[in-house]
UniProtKB/TrEMBL annotation, chain B:
Gene3D superfamilies (alphabetical): Pyruvate-ferredoxin oxidoreductase, PFOR, domain III (3.40.920.10)
Domain Pyruvate/ketoisovalerate oxidoreductase catalytic: 23-179
Keywords: Oxidoreductase
Species lineage: Bacteria, Pseudomonadati, Planctomycetota, Candidatus Brocadiia, Candidatus Brocadiales
UniProt key word Oxidoreductase: yes
Species, as recorded: Candidatus Brocadia sapporoensis
Protein name: Pyruvate/ketoisovalerate oxidoreductase catalytic domain-containing protein
One Gene Ontology molecular-function label: oxidoreductase activity, acting on the aldehyde or oxo group of donors
Length: 337, 183
């Protein structure tokens, strides 16, 4: 297969097609718009531009219940609007993929500049307890690869899976060979007409409402968590680079910022979660080898809490704000502190 | 199943290019054409376009890294070669060798804030108007100049797949003109 110069968002669209996407609904938003632009040119994918992101996520839920592999793509402001329906999709066990190409927020923020401010929103944006699987690649090739993984994980867990990106990686062009070495998980939920026709956001058992049955609710939530954990074990993606020199420091980053972290691979060991949630357990084995753990994020500190929670130790946090990834600036911060 | 990614090799032979200009000067087209040309010559490429959210106008710059090896860091502090077409140059654009639209800089160095230790002043706009009757060929003359500076043999480049048929011959002429241009 020949090499192609592909944009990150184009890679997401091509991978979605390869994964068997049949229905896409979305509302254009910088820096995710190229995904819907690509979709409208794909003959085998039914694409609808909706009136907003609330309609988009609900159209995708409907299409999935009707038996189609479905996806939507947005950025922070749209992702905020989708939250209520994401909770609904978890409660109804609807497999679908949501792409969030992050930009600087809050609100409309800085539309063309990258950020990582929606990380915690992925798991706590909707009300109640639910257990999404979240991937965050750091290159155009990885966007291709993990879009396919996201579709597979959605079908395996029967739940929405979130593919995080950012304005940098999604707008970056890189030469890649768009291939995948995994199998495509077939459609898991039977189409309407063949399966259960009653779907509800209320607590339930099968198609029967159980709105005041405490034990049933506990079993339901436990089954959601179990599905997520079992699926996550099959998609245990992370990167760990040991330093060629002796170092007592582990530098953690992810997404676009982790591309800048490679700049320092001769000075620090590097760790990068690709499956953000549930967090990859291997960090518990890697971290004790290092006296000092430092973490960079393009927010004021979101995933660092997850790492600290897992490791039960303090992590030095370095915020890189405002959408600018400048190796010189990062170098100054890293070596001055 | 644990997926552990093999570390990418050192970027030993990577070159960095930065193209800067104003909206409407064709920086995006030029950046895509240059990146595609290098990709078809077998290079690994990263291309990042940086522009504001303005509906019209504003500045744009393109950061290109090309290498024989996979590119792990697409960011850079200073490019090996830069092109500055803007009339109001952005001093944050840094390159070891800078090609500058001479009307922005003048015939002599004004010791401005642009970091260009070995600058090459070219009257791109004047040449486009005099030779091709339109300023829209500025980017193609500049592309030719860049291809010459980075040592690409024009005979090995498949231009037909890079540009739309409209103005194709004029674009190729402008590239060749820039490639062979001498003060």
């Amino acid at each position: 297969m020949p090499k192609k110069l592909l944009q990150g968002n184009e890679a997401i669209a091509q991978a979605a097609e390869a994964a068997g996407l049949q229905f896409f609904a979305g509302y254009p938003i910088t820096p995710a718009s190229e995904i819907i632009h690509e979709m409208v040119n794909k003959k085998h994918i039914k694409t609808m531009q909706m009136e907003d992101e609330i309609a988009s996520i609900n159209a995708v839920i409907g299409a999935s219940l009707a038996g189609l592999k479905a996806m939507t793509a947005t950025s922070g402001p749209g992702f905020s609007l989708m939250q209520e329906s994401i909770g609904l999709a978890h409660m109804m066990e609807v497999p679908l993929v949501i792409v969030n190409v992050q930009r600087v927020g809050p609100s409309t923020g800085m539309p063309t500049l990258p950020a990582q401010g929606d990380v915690i929103q992925c798991i706590h944006g909707s009300h109640g307890d639910y257990f999404p699987i979240v991937f965050y690649p750091n290159s155009v090739f990885e966007l291709f690869r993990y879009t396919i993984a996201a579709f597979n994980a959605a079908e395996e867990s029967m739940s929405p899976v979130i593919l995080l990106s950012d304005g940098y990686i999604s707008h970056l062009y890189e030469t890649i060979v768009p291939h995948y070495d995994c199998t495509i998980t077939p459609r898991s939920r039977p189409a309407l007409g063949m399966g259960n026709r009653h779907f509800t956001g209320l607590s339930h058992k099968g198609s029967v409402l159980k709105t005041s049955d405490v034990n049933n609710y506990r079993q339901l939530i436990a089954s959601f968590r179990e599905k997520q954990q079992m699926t996550a074990h099959r998609h245990n993606y992370f990167e760990y680079l040991e330093c060629s020199r002796e170092t007592d420091t582990l530098l953690i980053s992810y997404g676009a910022l982790s591309r800048a972290a490679y700049y320092f691979k001769n000075d620090f060991a590097l760790y990068r979660p690709i499956r953000m949630f549930p967090a990859v357990e291997e960090i518990r084995k890697i971290a004790p080898r290092y006296k000092r753990i430092r973490m960079m994020e393009m927010n004021t500190g979101q995933y660092v809490y997850e790492i600290e929670r897992m490791l039960h130790r303090e992590v030095e946090f370095i915020p890189i704000l405002g959408g600018r990834i400048d190796p010189k600036e990062i170098k100054q911060t890293l070596y001055e502190q | 199943m644990v997926h552990k990614i093999v570390p990418v090799p050192e970027e030993l032979r990577s070159k960095k290019i930065i193209l800067a200009g104003e909206a409407g000067q064709g920086i995006k087209l030029m950046a895509h054409a240059l990146a595609n040309i290098l990709a078809k010559l077998g290079k690994e490429i990263s291309l990042n376009l940086v522009y504001d959210a303005a509906v019209r106008g504003g500045n744009i710059h393109a950061e290109i890294v090309y290498s024989d090896d996979p590119i792990d860091v697409p960011f850079f502090e200073e490019a090996d070669i830069g092109l500055q077409l803007s009339k109001t140059p952005d001093p944050s654009i840094r390159a070891k060798l800078m090609l500058i639209e001479s009307s922005a800089c003048g015939a002599e160095c004004k010791k401005c804030e642009i970091k260009c230790p070995a600058s090459d002043r070219v009257p791109f706009e004047k040449l486009a108007i005099e030779q091709f009757n339109s300023p829209i060929f500025v980017n193609m003359i500049a592309l030719g100049r860049l291809l010459s500076k980075i040592g690409i043999n024009l005979e090995k480049v498949d231009f037909a797949s890079e540009f739309p048929p409209q103005f194709f011959n004029e674009n190729i002429k402008a590239i060749r003109y820039g490639y062979t241009y001498k003060d």
